[in-house]
């Protein structure tokens, strides 16, 4: 079975060469683009399985590229960027990115994120097969069979990682889950970047399910430890 086709969108030659070498070494197929215009052209004409996208391109901002790709495709997009501020990460995730890796990163981190993108849906389905078809907690409903989440009857649009994060919490209502436990479940690792990314995904998830993020109804933070889903009557 062929490895996925990866589109690398990166204008820095040294970083692009590192990613190309990594993919070659692990027998991935790949395409490259040095700017946003070429990235959109390659994505639309070759329909890659996964996109590795730098945000700081010379012609088009990466967030705009994400929005453009999302207008026709749900292909996984992993943002790889030197922008480390949470608002930059949240902006990319809100635009439709699936994951976020901050530069500098290790080869092992990059490969781990690619493996997650490859196996995410089959693993989620395997986990959900062992659960009841519907989870209810207050006004929050997760329809595992359909892969949909509803709040007060309205469907929420979650990224794949937000959805998996919510499912992990829902499977352990009332239990405090450590950062390490959650990141291992989502990415299979607990790098510093993983824990930083977890904080960002939790922030975007909370904005979608909590009426007041300062007084959370569903997800409680245990500072320095992790998170817990509260039981809501």
Structure summary:
The protein has eight helices and twelve strands. The chain has helices at 13-25, 36-46, 62-70, 86-95, 107-129, 160-170, 179-187, 192-209, and strands spanning 5-9, 29-33, 50-53, 77-81, 99-102, 134-137, 140-143, 148-151, 154-156, 176-178, 219-222, 226-229.
Low-confidence residue ranges: none
Give the SSE string. Answer: EHEHEHEHEHEEEEHEHHEE
The proportion of residues in beta strands is: 15-25%
Strand line-up of the largest beta sheet: 2-1-3-4-5
Largest sheet: 5 strands, parallel
Helical proportion? 40-55%
Which shape, going by the Cα principal axes? globular
Q: What descriptors fit this protein?
A:
single chain, 233 residues, alpha/beta, 4-stranded antiparallel beta sheet, 8 helices
